[in-house]
């Protein structure tokens, strides 16, 4: 970290301390990202400042730096919505001490040496959980938990179909689906992804790149269909999955990694009395911080007891940050991908 002195008028000098970060200077996508210096975040009451050891890469990061996401931070900024590291300023959060190992939701700014985490998005990490694993938890596991529990109300014994089941949120949904005692059917596009989905607890796996998805679901359920669909993929898979739901089924709309937002004939919901349910974790985090803090606490209980562990596929240096985002955007990610600033 270095210091810049800005002379303002005759007598005022402002000291800006700089940190290394992956920087987005224009909304033109991954190719224009570069590593450089940004002003350090200013500690704020109620938010912990952390020395970032690991930041997880999400599919949405590539949309954010291309100006195609729901929010647009002021330029320049560092992408990265979740991080793990050590506390350097507690922000007055009760019980927190300098040096504590934590992880949490940053909004953006995680792919840098320092980042701010608000109290309700912050979790403590046991020594048994690595920083890479810690950074992999808040967004993917927070989203999948909120989707399956709050929005989908998945019950024990129900059948849950997870599309893109070896991706970040997909694999988290497989694991959390098993924690909820659902029968989990995973859909994936390669043998390697199938193996990881099975390792995450999937009871059955459909290779939707090889066989027709609807036919695959029919075979896997002996024609009875599924209760809940977790859909981070969109495109043609969405309608095929909705058509394979049972009476009273729920289609959880998570995202559109395929690049296509599907249009669904609404008669499909009428004839089966089922629901299309939107899921927006970041908004839930803002609207109901207490509920989200409780969700994250439950997830961390599972991590502490050893019954839930994020799958980290690979990690990149900060200098390779653009490569890390490209790796995820190009459908290579299996579980979570990490940047170590
Ligand atoms: N609603 C929310 O609150 C929320 C929160 C977090 C993420 N999301 C959204 O969820 C989606 C997945 O995010 P993620 O971080 O889990 O991404 P990810 O790790 O890249 O996983 C996406 C999965 O989608 C499948 N896929 C199908 N077609 C694809 C394509 N053309 N390009 C890339 N992947 C494709 C891939 O599985 P196969 O190769 O097996 O098909 C891949 O594993 C994104 O749209 C993201 O914005 C939404």
Indicate the percent of residues in helices: 25-40%
CATH architecture descriptor text of the largest domain: Alpha-Beta Complex
**Rounded Rg:** 21 Å
User: How would you classify the helix and strand content by structural class?
Assistant: alpha/beta
- Give the bound compounds: NADP nicotinamide-adenine-dinucleotide phosphate
CATH topology label of the largest domain: Quinone Oxidoreductase, Chain A, domain 1
N to C succession of SSEs: EEEEHEEEEHHEHEHEHEHEHEHHEHE
Keywords, separated by commas or semicolons:
341 residues; Quinone Oxidoreductase, Chain A, domain 1; Rossmann fold; 6-stranded parallel sheet; binds NADP nicotinamide-adenine-dinucleotide phosphate
What does this structure look like?
This protein is an alpha/beta fold. It has two domains: 2-129 and 310-340, Alpha-Beta Complex (Quinone Oxidoreductase, Chain A, domain 1); 140-282, NAD(P)-binding Rossmann-like Domain (Rossmann fold, 3-Layer(aba) Sandwich). The protein contains eleven helices and 16 strands. The strands form three sheets. Strands 4, 5, 6, 7, 8, 15 and 16 form a seven-stranded mixed β-sheet that branches. Helix 5 (191-199) links the parallel strand 10 and strand 11 (204-207). Helix 3 crosses helix 4 and helix 9 (281-287) packs across helix 10. The longest helix has 17 residues, at 289-305. The two termini are 12 Å apart. Bound molecules: NADP nicotinamide-adenine-dinucleotide phosphate (NAP).
